[in-house]
Amino acid sequence: MDKKSKALELYLEGFKLVEIAKELGVSQPAVTKMLKQFPEYYQEKERRKKESEKRAKEWRNEYKRQKRLQDEEDYEVLQKDHMDAVRSLSRKGRLNNDVLIKLCILHYDYNKEKQRLVFNESAGKRPADLPRSIYVHKNVLKQFRVSDQ
Q1: Plot region of 26 (φ>0 → left; ψ -120 to 50 → alpha; else → beta)
Q2: What's the CA gap between 21 and 11, in Å, rounded?
Q3: Is 25 exposed, middle or buried (0-12, 13-18, 19+ CB in 10 A)?
Q4: All residues at 6 or more sequence positions from 90 whose CB lies less than 8 Å from its CB, including other chains
């Protein structure tokens, strides 16, 4: 069997041009030149092109589906947080200190000497409805930042 027919046979079996070139001991352009003499080469080339496009389309669709699922999960988390905030803020009357501090915890620092959370004025002016300081039990301290006051 000559190199041309061997190259066509390998190509039709699904081998890539680089693999055929290594098998026959010739360059890749030489393999392409050999294969262009056969009409089967063009048919197989078109078939591979369509198959590749189909795989790419399936991959894109799967990627979009995964992205959409992730976005939906993120939206659900955001919506849950929003609803929690709405529930806590929509109570009639005044919010208790615990809820206020939970909503504004980044503006408080723990003072070891006083064993209290103290409003940090560098975070901005303290609203009238936020307490200046609040006692925090020792078991709850882990969740608060510790300052060097």
Answers
A1: beta
A2: 11
A3: exposed
A4: none
pLDDT at 46: 95
- What's the pLDDT at 82? 87
Quick: pLDDT tens for 68-121: 989 989 899 889 888 887 777 776 656 666 666 666 777 778 888 888 888 888
Positive or negative torsion for Cα 66, 68, 69, 70: positive
Residue 4 contacts residue 34 (beta carbons within 8 Å) = yes
Choose among 118, 91, 87: nearest CA to 104: 118
Q: Is 35 exposed, middle or buried (0-12, 13-18, 19+ CB in 10 A)?
A: buried
Sheet holding 116-119, edge to edge: 108-111, 116-119, 133-135
Q: 123-140: per-residue pLDDT in tens?
A: 778 877 777 887 776 666
The most distant pair of C-alpha atoms in the chain lies apart, rounded to whole Å, by 94
Determine if the pTM surpasses 0.70. Answer: no
